[in-house]
Amino acid sequence: MKHTTFIKEQPPPNEPLTQPPIRVMVVDDQAVVRSGLNAFLSIYDELALVGEANDGAKAVNLCGQLRPDVILMDLMMPRMNGVEATIAIRKHYPNIQIIALTSFAEAALVTEVLEAGAIGYLLKNVTADELADAIYAAHAGSPTLAQEATQSLMDQMRQGQLNQPGSDLTQREVEVLRLMVAGLNNTAIAEELIISRSTVKFHVSNVLSKLQVPNRMKAISYAIRHRLAPT
Amino acid sequence: MFEAQLATKMKALSASDQILAGQINDALQMNKYLHLAGAGGIEIQVKDGVVTLSGHVGMTMNIIDVDYAVHSVLGVVRVENHLVADDKLMMAVARALGNDDRMHHEQMGVNAQRGFIYLTGQASSAAIRLLAAQIAAGLPQVRGIVNRIQAPDVVLDDAEEDLIQPAIDQAVYAADGELGHVHKLIVNPHSRRVSAAVVDTRDVDIPRIASVLLSNTHLPQERQLLIPSDALRCAASGAIFLKLRLKQPVNFINFNPNNFVVPPADWHPPYPYQPGDVLFSRQRV
């Protein structure tokens, strides 16, 4: 017998009827940007700024203490960049949603941060209402992509850059692939790049996916054949 | 905590598929994160312990989390995971648009919510605007298109925002009484949206809908009516209500099967429909 059921929408367990404000954390190395976002968010009663961090590492540390619902994450930051922070936060705090908020709309960056677990990609020219809408959407589990990011993905296809597997590898993935070709295992790669083993594993998984190969050996073979990871 | 809750439940499991489906439902509902991430949009089918998941969730990571949660339920033999993530879907649509030469220099935005694609931006012409929707509708994982792209001489229609997907066999009520049940749906292949419902009236007493039947002098024996989607309203109770009244029979149109065709075998209907549920209008093909 086949049984089919649709999950019914119910209030999450132990959720009060009146929704508290969405707790937002801002991560950006530029104080002026953090200050501007603070002013943006202050006009919405449904949003509460609970903390700020000026790099990815501090953001990861603050998550356990501040428990934000949504993080606005810059991508280019010292110590730990936004992509690496996104990977770490999503791993340890999967209930926190992350929106990348950046000045750049390169297709590879869009792909990389969304694959890392961000739910949104916005540019810093966003309006207050657009930002608020993206935060509401993220909190509800829906992604948001800036029009410029869409445009960038469209342009990438136009230029035919996606036609060859591996052409969309990020700089970090190329580094990981280069070390794979050099014969290093994940532990050694982690030591070499000063990142965690789980982050290496994440990058290796992305490399296999982008090269469209089933395993590590085939990835190495492909990289050598197509000169994707020059040493 | 999530695993502990599941472990408690696992001890009480029986082998029946129905109970297993309920337990999987519970496992997903108990996880607040998955609930927020769209567990409410997941369909669970269980047959001999094999679980098939379909529907749409917000992020690719949700699919992994759901898969993990379902595998954790004792009694699950195998999981066929057909879930589609909105983040991957919106990127796929953006790339599909970029892959078409006619979209060069057009300013488009793409967002996705539970499988529905929202197109925004500015097109150079009404034809390009429609073409963008057609390209997006070419992806079989897309549930429907909401076209908010602005173009010269195009006035955006508020009705575009009304997304309705009646279920097959769902009861249909006019404003003043029961009319029948949903028999088939007419889907526009260029937007993957339901444009009309074929309502079977055979299970309703003739006297109740006599005025409708009398007005339709050529109503075939099947007693089927064609109700356009803009007359449909989906109630929270699961029934479909019409913005029409039985006492205004002129509003009801006979369903003429000659005006419709079966979709091509290689065309996949939008979730949650099966190939046999859907017809195309001949005008649209």
Descriptive key words:
heterodimer; A: alpha/beta; Rossmann fold; Arc Repressor Mutant, subunit A; 10 helices; 49% helix; 15% strand; globular; B: 285 residues; alpha/beta; Histidine-containing Protein, Chain: A; 3 domains; 7 helices; 15 strands; 25% helix; disordered N terminus
Explain this structure.
The complex is a heterodimer of chains A (231) and B (285). Chain A has a 6-stranded parallel sheet, with helices on both faces. By secondary structure, chain A is α/β, with parallel strands linked by helices. Chain A has 10 helices and 7 strands. In chain A, helix 2 (56-66) runs parallel beside helix 3 (82-92). Chain A is globular, with a radius of gyration of 20 Å. Chain A folds into 2 domains: 22-155, Rossmann fold, CATH 3.40.50.2300; 171-226, Winged helix-like DNA-binding domain superfamily/Winged helix DNA-binding domain (Arc Repressor Mutant, subunit A, Orthogonal Bundle). With 285 residues, chain B is α/β, with parallel strands linked by helices. Chain B folds into 3 domains: 2-84, Histidine-containing Protein, Chain: A (2-Layer Sandwich), CATH 3.30.1340.30; 87-161, 2-Layer Sandwich (Histidine-containing Protein, Chain: A), CATH 3.30.1340; 171-284, no CATH class. In chain B, strand 1 and strand 2 (50-57) form a beta hairpin. Chain B is flat. The interface between A and B is large, with 41 and 53 residues.
